[in-house]
Design brief:
- α1 packs parallel to α6, α10 packs antiparallel against α11 and α12 packs across α13.
- Helices cover 57% and strands 12% of the residues.
- The protein is of the alpha/beta class and 333 residues long.
- The chain folds into two domains: 182 residues, NAD(P)-binding Rossmann-like Domain (Rossmann fold), CATH 3.40.50.720; 138 residues, no CATH class.
- α4 links the parallel β4 and β5.
- The longest helix is centred in the middle third of the chain and has 16 residues.
- The chain has an eight-stranded mixed β-sheet, sandwiched between helices.
- The mean pLDDT is 97.
- Bound molecules: NADPH dihydro-nicotinamide-adenine-dinucleotide phosphate (NDP) and magnesium ion (MG).
- The site of NADPH dihydro-nicotinamide-adenine-dinucleotide phosphate has 27 residues, from α1, α2 and β6.
């Protein structure tokens, strides 16, 4: 327990007074940041793709959206918050870079460090480079804020040209509700590397393979797919909810002793020392930039592996059975 955490008394919204912030991308994060900042009294302009669904949503929400280029050209704009998808940020940045260079004062803000960590975007000397990364999806960032609370966030400063970058980042975090919960100090490298690791090894890559291979094992042994679905997929949420709310020990207390003994005696045979060695290899691929290069090339090539894997998954029995069973569970929306 050593991370530095900031709360509302550590942050001064007054630092954003007289500053106009452009939210580039009115999607999951963008809409939440824009609405929360506006409610906090900050001058906000929204940029998105002209005429797109989210452009229209911004209009419905009372903004007058502009293109990213027009936002960057706006003389009053001294903060550009990059909330377009990570794979598109470089392209959008290149469209507006020359405008950014003309500014006396500019904060380039991010909610994820990928493009800075892997040098996809190399901001000019006149910029502060700051990250405020909510640890939750955009709708939660908005809903919780409306309820008078906030989701925890991360803050990082990559470049402090003004000497005030950290305080400005904290002010922004306060404006979108983060200091109500707590804002944890990190770096662009730590946020990016741990984020990629978590999603590849545990949350997405690891969890999905565990579910699929558990399901396949039961079905191949002749058990009914419907039953296998409940045991290997549906019930996972019940366990994870307990762990998230109260920790692993509480989850163990809540399940049966038989389940708990099964966990202790069998778990390490599934996720083994070999698995941990592979985790270290995956971490090395992340920190060396090998994964980033691979993913950038995959995008440049039109995503062949990505699309093939999506197709394979939608043909998997677990998805077919899942559709049918979820249809029986009215409360799942
Ligand atoms: P979304 O995909 O939800 O939204 C992106 C928005 O950018 C959309 O409104 C899209 O417009 C718009 N957009 C796309 N291309 C352009 C363009 N060329 N010019 C202007 N606008 C464009 O993204 P997220 O909110 O999920 O992600 C934004 C950032 O936040 C990323 O860095 C991500 O890593 C980070 N983040 C996301 C979290 C999440 O839970 N989603 C959590 C924490 C961080 P349209 O669709 O209208 O075409
Ligand atoms: Mg993450």
């Amino acid at each position: 327990m050593s991370a530095k955490i900031y709360y509302k008394d550590d942050a001064d919204l007054g630092l954003l007074e007289g500053k106009k912030i452009a939210i580039i991308g009115y999607g999951s994060q963008g809409h939440a940041h824009a609405l929360n900042l506006r409610d906090s009294g900050v001058d906000v302009v929204v940029a998105d793709v002209e005429g797109s669904p989210n452009w229209k949503q911004a209009e419905k929400d009372g903004f007058s959206p502009v293109t990213p280029l027009d936002a960057a050209r706006d003389e009053k704009v001294v903060w550009l918050q990059m909330l377009v998808p990570d794979t598109i940020q470089k392209k959008v940045y290149e469209e507006i870079e020359s405008e950014i260079k003309k500014k006396d004062e500019m904060v380039l803000g991010f909610a994820h460090g990928f493009n800075i960590r892997f040098d996809r975007i190399v901001p000019p000397e006149n910029c502060d480079v700051v990250m405020v990364a909510p640890k939750g999806p955009g709708h939660l960032v908005r809903d919780v804020f409306v309820d008078g609370k906030g989701v925890p966030m991360l803050i990082a400063v990559e470049k402090d040209r003004s000497g005030k970058a950290h305080d400005l980042g904290l002010a922004y975090a306060k404006g979108i509700g983060g200091t109500r919960a707590g804002v944890i100090e990190t770096t662009f490298a730590e946020e990016t590397e741990t984020d990629l690791f978590g999603e590849q090894v545990v949350l997405c890559g690891g969890a999905v393979e565990l579910i699929k291979k558990g399901f396949e094992t039961l079905v191949e042994a002749g058990y009914q797919p419907e039953i296998a679905y409940f045991e290997c997929l549906h019930e996972l949420k019940l366990i994870v909810d307990l762990i998230q709310d109260k920790g692993i020990e509480y989850m163990n207390y809540s399940i049966s002793d038989t389940a708990e003994y099964g966990e202790y005696s069998r778990g390490e045979r599934i996720v083994t020392g070999e698995t941990k060695k592979e985790m270290k290899k995956i971490l090395d691929e992340i920190t060396s930039g090998q994964f980033a290069d691979e993913w950038i090339k995959e995008n440049e090539n039109g995503r062949p592996i990505f699309k093939k894997k999506q197709e394979e998954l939608s043909g998997h029995l677990i998805e077919k059975v899942g559709k049918k069973l979820r249809g029986m569970m009215d409360w799942l929306k």
